[in-house]
């Protein structure tokens, strides 16, 4: 029987926690500019860019493939700098029955610690953990940080 599993990735960023969190809450439309080798496009399908219930379609590159995911923002906690996303449709759901991302940003000195937790349930028990998605998120976080430091 399949069960919900978790996988965390942690990245130390040089940007402040507020600046980094702001990039994800109010500037996600700039992600293709912040990390153009990973994020090729993003479209707002419902709501606005920074509200709970908003639906967005992401176009991204993973292991040489062009993929998409439609997500909804389930929760934004400005005080704790946390956002919860849920995948609604997309290529990743070929492998997962469910997939949530939880982004949390904590101030750490002049920079911040970015923690991304994937909560997922596999379609089948014999599918390996989604390490490629964790690697993708690590690279995306580093790219966003580099962009924020330059701009």
Question: Any overview of this molecule?
Answer:
By secondary structure, the protein is α+β, with helices and mostly antiparallel strands. It is 22% helix and 48% strand. The chain is built from 3 helices and 7 strands; from the N terminus they run βααββββββα. Strands 1-7-6-5-4-3-2 form a 7-stranded antiparallel sheet. The protein is globular. The relative contact order is 0.25.
Task: Lay out the secondary structure.
Layout: E1 5-13, H1 17-25, H2 31-34, E2 39-46, E3 55-62, E4 65-77, E5 82-90, E6 96-108, E7 111-122, H3 131-150
Number of strands: 7
Structural class by SSE content: alpha+beta
Q: Which consecutive residue ranges, at least 5 long each, have pLDDT under 50?
A: none
Helical content band:
10-25%
What portion of residues belong to β-strands?
over 45%
Largest sheet: 7 strands, antiparallel
Q: Give average pLDDT, whole number.
A: 93
Q: Can you tell me the overall shape? A: globular
- Give me the Rg, rounded: 15 Å
Elements, N to C (H/E): EHHEEEEEEH
End-to-end Cα distance, whole Å, is: 48 Å
Count helical runs.
3
Spatial arrangement of strands, main beta sheet: 1-7-6-5-4-3-2
Family: Belongs to the MLP family.
InterPro entries: Bet_v_I/MLP, MLP-like, START-like_dom_sf
Protein name: Bet v I/Major latex protein domain-containing protein
Pfam family, one: Bet_v_1
């Amino acid at each position: 029987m399949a069960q919900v599993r978790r996988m965390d990735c942690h990245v130390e960023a040089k940007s402040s926690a507020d600046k980094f969190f702001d990039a994800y809450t109010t500037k996600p439309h700039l992600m293709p500019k912040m990390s153009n080798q990973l994020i090729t496009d993003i479209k707002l399908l419902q709501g606005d860019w920074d509200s709970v219930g908003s639906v967005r379609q992401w176009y991204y590159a993973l292991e040489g493939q062009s993929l998409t995911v439609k997500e909804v923002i389930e929760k934004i906690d400005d005080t704790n700098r946390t956002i919860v996303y849920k995948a609604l449709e997309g290529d990743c759901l070929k492998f997962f029955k469910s997939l949530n991302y939880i982004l949390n940003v904590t101030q750490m000195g002049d920079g911040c610690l970015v923690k991304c937790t994937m909560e997922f349930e596999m379609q089948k028990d014999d599918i390996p953990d989604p390490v490629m998605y964790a690697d993708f998120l690590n690279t995306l976080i580093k790219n966003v940080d580099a962009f924020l430091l330059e701009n």
